[in-house]
């Protein structure tokens, strides 16, 4: 069986890397090393792209004569069983295949972030496209598959309401995670490397270093406020010297300003370091000097999460949010801890989706508005962080177990094997199919933009329950104003109740001590109940209140 890879020659930017670009490059390297293909076929846009493909192949021990470039204009693809592209844009390839024979080969894509309008539209076009049971869209996590299924159903329902047609999409949605090159991270247990990095940074050996790796973007990646709040509390509780280390980069000036403002305001006692991607002092990153890895993802833009895998491959215990792919890669209580997350239930984000659909807000605002009302359980984060900070033996045990599991389950050799198992299953489906019906060309219908709290409902641990309790964590109004005033605290205020009315809401919570959200909403009928619920979630997110399921 031969697989043809779509290769567009996008080289990896080492200073501002994007997770999908890293995963794509690592997949290609792994294919060269572990695939059973005798010949490595690629579909390249030009000769320069093929030359880069050859360079990558040679770097991983594959001879140039084992590589073949296929003309992208010739979609007949002789001697190829699988055409694979590392994105979900498979429709144009499916349409091109109809010029020959729909059974000629299987087409496989992979889903990553699926929150944008463009991906929504693309998924909608799967309905009615010439896609068959021997085609597939690989999902890296159960949550992503759920989101894709929800988007497909939304478009299917729309077609039925418009035309009375029950449109089906026979595309397979297998779950195969992203892999990690475990050998690449073996030396991160080296005590000499740990000492060398700490010496450059100027931190002592007995300091507990908590590491975050990734883009520093609170709108489309992860809000660092819960980590800052917990680190401050744990340092006080344990009397341990704690420092924060961030390895990444800023997308813009706003994120940079918000980063420094949050850390300097919320936890001024905690020393922190920022090492930017591509820093020549750290050619292998800064994994080796970390005691704990922490990433509190809270964004629907996240599709899987590579950095926890890299942390575990480096024998570092991980502390992550119970969110999307994170919950599937980290075993709670074994190689790390997962912290509960809560988001408003379906039905509470239709107006946000509508604003984005009508282009009244940007994609960043759409992500930010959803994240703004997504809660990380700060109390549990503080508890688990305290456990790890206080227990070196547990850190070592969890780090070693994480490393072992990465080697046994997530190393690229296992992931490539899972891909090739899928190829065989699709090949069997394609060869045994007796369906000779003509393909249906997709119509150009209007796409919908569903409620993000519905589409991405399985990203969080659970939806916020109206019977859940809410109580104040901060009673000092001056502290409350400071917290709300942080750039990282507030993204799109128009999706909340008027900020001028916050004293009324907080006063009602304080008066009730601990009350259910349902009762709180009933006591404040003057406000839109959806905006009020999102505001309550937002207050819990930034640590002014606490939500108790």
Describe this structure in words.
The chain has 549 residues and is of the alpha/beta class. It folds into three domains: 210 residues, Rossmann fold; 188 residues, Rossmann fold; 122 residues, no CATH class. 42% of the residues lie in helices and 13% in strands. The chain has 20 helices and 18 strands. A six-stranded parallel β-sheet has the order 3-2-1-4-5-6, with helices on one face. Strands 9-8-7-10-11-12 form a six-stranded parallel β-sheet, with helices on both faces. The longest helix has 22 residues. The radius of gyration is 25 Å and the shape is globular.
Short description:
This protein has 549 residues and is an alpha/beta fold. It is 42% helix and 13% strand. Strands 3-2-1-4-5-6 form a six-stranded parallel sheet, with helices on one face.
């Amino acid at each position: 069986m031969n697989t043809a890879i779509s290769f567009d020659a996008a080289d990896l930017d080492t200073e501002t890397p994007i997770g999908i670009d890293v995963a794509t490059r690592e997949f290609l390297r792994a294919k060269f090393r572990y695939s059973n293909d005798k010949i490595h076929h690629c579909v390249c846009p030009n000769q320069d792209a093929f030359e880069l493909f050859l360079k990558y192949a040679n770097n991983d021990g594959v001879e140039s004569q084992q590589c073949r470039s296929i003309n992208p204009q010739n979609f007949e693809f002789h001697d190829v069983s699988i055409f694979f592209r590392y994105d979900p844009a498979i429709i144009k390839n499916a349409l091109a295949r109809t010029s020959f024979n729909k059974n000629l080969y299987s087409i496989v894509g992979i889903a990553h972030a699926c929150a944008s309008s463009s991906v929504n539209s693309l998924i909608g076009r799967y309905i009615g496209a010439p896609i068959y049971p021997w085609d597939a869209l690989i999902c890296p996590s159960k949550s992503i598959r759920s989101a894709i299924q929800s988007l497909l159903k939304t478009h299917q329902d729309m077609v039925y309401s418009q035309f009375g047609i029950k449109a089906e999409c026979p595309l397979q949605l297998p779950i195969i995670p992203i892999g990690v090159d475990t050998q690449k991270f073996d030396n991160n247990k080296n005590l000499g490397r740990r000492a060398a990095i700490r010496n450059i940074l100027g931190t002592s050996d007995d300091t507990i270093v908590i590491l975050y790796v990734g883009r520093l973007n609170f709108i489309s990646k992860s809000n660092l406020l819960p980590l800052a709040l917990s680190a401050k509390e744990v340092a006080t509780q344990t009397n341990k010297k704690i420092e924060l280390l961030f390895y990444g980069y800023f997308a813009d000036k706003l994120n940079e300003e918000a980063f420094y403002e949050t850390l300097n305001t919320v936890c001024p006692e905690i020393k922190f370091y920022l090492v930017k991607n591509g820093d020549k002092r750290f050619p292998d990153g800064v994994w080796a000097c970390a005691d704990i890895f922490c990433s509190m993802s809270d964004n629907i833009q996240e599709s899987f999460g590579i950095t926890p895998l890299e942390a575990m491959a480096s024998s570092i215990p991980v502390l992550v949010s119970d969110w999307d792919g994170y919950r599937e890669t980290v075993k709670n209580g074994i190689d790390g801890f997962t912290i509960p997350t809560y988001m408003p239930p379906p039905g509470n984000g239709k107006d946000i989706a509508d604003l984005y659909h009508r282009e009244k807000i940007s994609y960043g605002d759409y992500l930010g508005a959803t994240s703004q009302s997504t809660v990380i359980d700060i109390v549990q984060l503080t508890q688990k962080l305290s456990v790890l900070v206080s227990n070196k033996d547990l850190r070592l045990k969890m780090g070693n177990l994480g490393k072992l599991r990465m080697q046994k389950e997530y190393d690229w050799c296992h992931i490539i094997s899972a891909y090739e198992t899928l190829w065989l299953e699709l090949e069997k489906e394609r060869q045994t199919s007796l369906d000779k019906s003509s393909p249906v060309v997709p119509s150009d219908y209007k796409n919908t933009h569903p409620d993000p709290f519905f589409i991405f409902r399985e990203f969080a641990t659970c939806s916020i329950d109206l019977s859940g309790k809410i109580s104040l964590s901060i009673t000092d109004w001056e502290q409350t104003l400071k917290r709300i005033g942080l750039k990282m605290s507030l993204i799109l205020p128009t999706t909340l109740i008027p900020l001028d009315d916050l004293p009324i809401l907080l006063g009602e919570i304080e008066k009730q001590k601990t009350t259910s959200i349902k009762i709180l909403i009933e006591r404040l009928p003057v406000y839109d109940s959806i905006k009020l619920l999102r505001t309550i979630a937002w207050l819990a997110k930034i640590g002014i209140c606490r939500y108790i399921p």
